[in-house]
Amino acid sequence: MAVLQIGAGGVGWVIAHKCAQHNDVFGDLTIASRNIEKCDKIIASIAKRDNQKVSQHTIESAQVDADDIPALVALIEQIKPDLVINAGPPWVNVAIMEACYQTQTSYLDTSVATDLCSPGQQVPEAYDPQWAFREKFKQAGITGILGAGFDPGVVSVFAAYAHKHLFDEIDSIDVMDVNAGDHGKKFATNFDPETNMLEIQGDSFYYEQGSWKQVPCHTRMLEFDFPVVGKQKVYSMAHDEVRSLAEFIPAKRIEFWMGFSDKYLNYFNVMRDIGLLSPDPVNVDGVDIHPLRVLKALLPDPTSLAPGYTGKTCIGTWLQGRKDGEKRSAFLYNICDHEEAYQEVEHQAISYTTAVPAITAALLYFQNKWSDVGLYNVEQLDPDPFLALMPSIGLDWDVHEL
Amino acid sequence: MAVLQIGAGGVGWVIAHKCAQHNDVFGDLTIASRNIEKCDKIIASIAKRDNQKVSQHTIESAQVDADDIPALVALIEQIKPDLVINAGPPWVNVAIMEACYQTQTSYLDTSVATDLCSPGQQVPEAYDPQWAFREKFKQAGITGILGAGFDPGVVSVFAAYAHKHLFDEIDSIDVMDVNAGDHGKKFATNFDPETNMLEIQGDSFYYEQGSWKQVPCHTRMLEFDFPVVGKQKVYSMAHDEVRSLAEFIPAKRIEFWMGFSDKYLNYFNVMRDIGLLSPDPVNVDGVDIHPLRVLKALLPDPTSLAPGYTGKTCIGTWLQGRKDGEKRSAFLYNICDHEEAYQEVEHQAISYTTAVPAITAALLYFQNKWSDVGLYNVEQLDPDPFLALMPSIGLDWDVHEL
Q1: Which residues are in the Saccharopine dehydrogenase-like C-terminal domain (chains A, B) (predicted)?
Q2: Where are the alpha helices (DSSP H) in B235-382?
Q3: Which CATH number do you get for residue B385?
Q4: Which range of residues forms the domain containing residue A365?
Q5: Which residue of B has its CA nearest to A283?
């Protein structure tokens, strides 16, 4: 058995640790990235934390440009993995899927290929480039699992579970993501500042009564009393799973909400007002400079935040509807602690919560429970074995009846 | 008679208009700048507003690099002005003073040569480079008038006037500068953003009981009920006139205060927190970039703000002490209206309030009232003719007893 992981950022870091913890199932692991040093750093961290379960299977690094389909094909043919886990940035999804198709290798990722804010790449079209591979994956006789992180991922499985067991009829699905952690910096982003700031200023899209509603960022807010982390303000935002849930889970309204503190939004608003979040270049002393690249250079490297991170994340799916003729309102959620995550895998909870579901889904694939031929979003697959397995991989979950 | 004006920024713009309004006294005017087009724009504006009093005296433009002493000397020798008015940025003061010394030409400026925030250029040393010319100016038989804007300038004259007429003993001199105007932009600076942001984040220096106290920016605040513009928060800040007042006007405490709205300070704090106000370069994709240059490129050009500016400035000197054995507290001040300034000279009140005092002082020089040989800060000269003349040049003033 063998797994090829492509990508060595924060999520890739934890995926590799978790893969190593289960390498009795996965076999040999190859971690590939444009920058091979990042892979070697992860391998050193796995050794340091003693996270490699069995020693007879190898963990190796490889250099690959994930935009380059022939290079990907060559690497896959050399390694012959049973599964490619895509832990790269979203814009490489389509290239890796094509390479998997050409080599007849199964595929798994954790986020959608589009940027969700440029015209033609917004929520209603979010999965178009990847769903275009449905026939190809069937022809190739391989499995593709899309959006197997936390959000998208576990939140979508929660919706499928609620649809299967808890509700006869669903009025609303509200996915809610709150990071109540503290990295101790005045201002920092938890992943690439450029991607993050573009995403946050994009219009939100939510699904209602069969059609898409588009609203400017931060104009729809609600305050929700979360388990453990308490009352938090969350804002309607464009996110991958709103598109796939609208496709696969019947509900009258589907929306994604992200928690932002007043302090965070103040930083965001000032930066936007002065033009620092613009995707357009400005001329600085004769040189065209992208303001967001300057911001990225100024802010702390997101990977540097993990060691000092305290507090918890709470991400879940709030469903309202009816069961057996009675009104029901239930929040299915996970709580993840930044410090505990760091203790185990030397990374913070945001990467941890994305990586554990990917490994849960990969294990189900190896156990032949999530391995039908074809291309699937996780909410199309049976939620029961997933939610039964995930706690043993590192993430608990619970249902809070409201 | 002839005047050479060096500098064609915002203050230079209004100085030229005011010079033209009094060219029966000043004679021929030459406006010189590194960028001659800026001079020609001012000349066109003077014509548009019909601000040239008599037509027999010329108004011409010239190109000069104000850092280049031989070039300055050549220009002065060609024009043979009775007075050089320095309306350039502060860092050219010393070069222009040297050229005036070499050509035996009298000199006038509106701000100090140091940046007030770099080590060795702070308030206690602010006038060292210029006061070093005292002997030279005496030897050359010329007059030098330093700091003849509003602050420094009129506020220093107010202190001299109060010392002469209103107080036997002065406990405190608080210079206070509030711009209660609105330029209609989300965020903008009223002059060069780079200079402005460096100045605002520097430590404040105030003078107390014969020694200098240094405090971080925005740590000393007071709320003052200003005439016309009402209650405003002002913050202790490094400023030129604190140094010269400490030299020439006896007082127990001398301090400068600048008004900042909560909104302005919020922008400032966010920009500082993310590192955008740092004077040190950052590496952006392999290129070293100065964050403040990026900010300058992003923000509106300060010269573009004048047409839409509304509201008023209030700048003055608050003195507390004793007269005839009684406690006294008096605020000497001016109110200036942005729209009225624009109507008259196509610029806003901040440039207007700096330029009118410079022209008032220049007229006193031509009237042989402020023309003794030697180098003087304005508070060393007789305040009475200055305050008698200034209202007719464009700025009223009043005393508010508290």
Answers
A1: 149-392
A2: 240-248, 262-273, 291-298, 338-345, 349-366
A3: 3.40.50.720
A4: 2-151+350-401
A5: B297
CA distance A152 to A239: 8
Residue B191 pLDDT > 90: no
User: How many domains would you assign to chain A?
Assistant: 2
Cβ separation A284–B282 shorter than 8 A: no
What is the overall mean pLDDT for chain A?
A: 95
Q: B69-95, pLDDT tens digit by residue?
A: 999 999 999 999 999 999 998 889 999
Residues B105 and B159 in one domain: no
CA distance B293 to chain A (A): 6
* H or E stretch at B337: strand B326-337
Q: Could you tell me the CA-to-CA distances from A63 to A38, A97, B54 in Å, in that order?
A: 10, 18, 78
How close does chain A come to B297, measured CA to CA in Å?
6
Domain match, B200 and B257 both: yes
| Mean pLDDT in residue range B292-299 | 94
Same domain, yes or no: B84 and B227? no
Same domain, B274 and B319: yes
Examine the pLDDT at B285 and tell me if it is beyond 90.
Answer: no
Q: Are B102 and B169 contained in the same domain?
A: no
Contact residues of A toward B, CB < 8 A: 186-187, 266-267, 270-271, 273-276, 282-285, 287, 289, 291, 293-299
The residue out of A347, A369, A391 marking a domain boundary is A347
Closest CA to A142 of A82, A94, A72: A82
Query: What are the CA-CA distances from residue B187 to residues A357, A362, B59 (Å)?
Result: 44, 50, 36
**Does residue A159 sit in the same domain as residue A142?**
no
Residue B192 has pLDDT above 90, yes or no: no
SS3 A26: helix
Partners of residue A296 in chain B, C-beta under 8 Å? 284
| pLDDT value, residue A70 | 98
Distance CA A253, CA A97 (A): 31
A186, A189, A270: which to substitute to probe chain B, counting the most B Cβ within 10 Å? A270
CB contact under 8 A, B270 and A187: yes
Domain edge (last residue) among A347, A368, A386: A347
Residues B329 and B393 in one domain: no
Q: What does the angle CA A14 – CA A19 – CA A20 come to, to the nearest 5 degrees? A: 100
- Verify that B169 and B223 share a domain, yes or no: yes
User: Which of B271, B274, B282 best tests the A interface by mutation, with the highest count of A CBs <10 A?
Assistant: B274
ipTM over 0.90: no
Q: Do A266 and B271 touch (CB under 8 A)?
A: no
Inter-chain residue contact B297 with A287, CB threshold 8 Å: no
- pLDDT surpassing 90 at residue B292: yes
User: At a CB cut-off of 8 Å and minimum separation 6, what does A177 contact?
Assistant: A151, A234, A256, A257, A258, A259, A313, A315
Contacts of B273 in chain A (CB under 8 A): 186-187, 267
Per the CB < 8 A criterion, the answer to whether B105 and B25 are in contact is: no
CB contacts, 8 Å: B271 with chain A? 270, 274
For residue B173, what is the domain's CATH number?
3.30.360.10
Place of tokens 């490129």: B297
Instruction: Write the residue in B186, B284, B296 that is nearest to A294 by C-beta.
Output: B284
Letter string b/e over residues A74-102, b meaning 16 or more CB atoms within 10 A of that residue's CB: ebbeebebbbbbbbbbbebbbbbbebbbb
Closest Cα in chain B, distance from residue A261 (Å): 15
* Distance in angstroms (rounded) separating the CA atoms of residues A251 and B351: 62
Using CA atoms, how far residue B280 sits from B170, B277, B292, in Å, is 42, 9, 9
pLDDT in tens, A211-255: 999 999 999 999 999 999 999 999 999 999 999 999 999 999 999
